Amino acid sequence: MMLIFSQCSKLGNESDFGKEELSLPQSVEQLGKAVAKDLHSTVVNLHRMGVDYSDADASEAFYGRFMTDYLAASPNAAKTKGHVDFAEMTSPEVFVQGLKNLTEIQLKYIDKIIAKTSEPDSYADMRCALKDLSIEIQQSVPDIQQERLLNIISVLYYSSIELQYLEEQGLMPRTPRSVLNSIKTRSEWISDSCRKFLAATWAIAVGEPTPTGEIVASVITVYVGAMLLYEVIVCKKSYSTNRAECQERYEDCYSPIPDGCSQCLQYCLTQGTWPPYSTHKCS
């Protein structure tokens, strides 16, 4: 096996912004760049539409409004209309089945990806961490189990380049954090970037590893891009539950509604907390 060594600086190198490349299989790199490209075009279109998410929260009402806007703005969304059941592809049943198909070493590295991308203070440092993880995965994980993990790395890496660019160009939608910064002095500013990508990471992890056909590929690029932008906008500050705790709750779960426990497991993994009984009926 050929060893690959990281030359990534912990501080990041902004002079090379937008030019960074990873050493990845071609299909993996293409997926990451396809998601990033659609994300860029969609955010530009949302800017032209004049959307305002200064009231963003984690409610179902806001999520529905956001997804309606995103699908209207995404260049790839039109390709999927009438061809693929978007809700079915992202259903709790499909999610849980995909989760069961993951191996222990894949789950271990998904946890590492989530942890490493939650720590950095900048997109540049996040990409540095992702680059190091991509090298570690290619050297430590059996070849047959690498693709899903590298897909996550590729999407987060190339999408972060676009998100950073869009923020710096002032093209991102207004959020509660950007509104708060507008009334503070510069010394009081808080970072307007959020890099906790739970929902997007799990969407890639449990999805089809190698999309077959333009329509299916378009659905994946649209949905994953939507999850990335949604998490940046809503900007959940902390997560009270990790994967192991979510799965323990799922194993002991009881729900009076069909597939209720599957819905709660999906919610827990993508939102970082077990849902309240009042809304999801899971004990």
Feature tags:
single chain; 283 residues; mainly alpha; 14 helices
- Low-confidence runs of at least 5 consecutive residues: 1-5, 10-17, 182-192
Mean model confidence by pLDDT: 82
- Report how far apart the termini are: 48 Å
Shape: globular
Class inferred from helices and paired strands: mainly alpha
Radius of gyration: 19 Å
Largest sheet: none
Give the number of domains: 2
Give the DSSP E fraction (strand runs of 2 or more residues).
under 5%
Q: What is the string of helix and strand elements?
A: HHHHHHHHHHHHHH
- Quick one: how many beta strands? 0
Q: Helical percent range? A: 55-70%
- Count of alpha/pi helices: 14
Q: What topology emerges from the helices and strands here?
A:
Layout: H1 26-49, H2 60-73, H3 77-80, H4 86-89, H5 92-100, H6 104-118, H7 123-140, H8 146-168, H9 176-182, H10 198-206, H11 214-234, H12 243-251, H13 260-271, H14 277-280
Question: How is this structure best summarized?
Answer:
The protein is mainly α and 283 residues long.
Report on the structure:
The chain is mostly helical. It has two domains: 24-237, no CATH class; 238-283, no CATH class. It is 61% helix and 0% strand. The protein has helices at 26-49, 60-73, 77-80, 86-89, 92-100, 104-118, 123-140, 146-168, 176-182, 198-206, 214-234, 243-251, 260-271, 277-280. Helix 8 packs antiparallel against helix 10 and helix 8 crosses helix 11. It is globular. The model is unreliable at 1-5, 10-17 and 182-192 (pLDDT under 50).
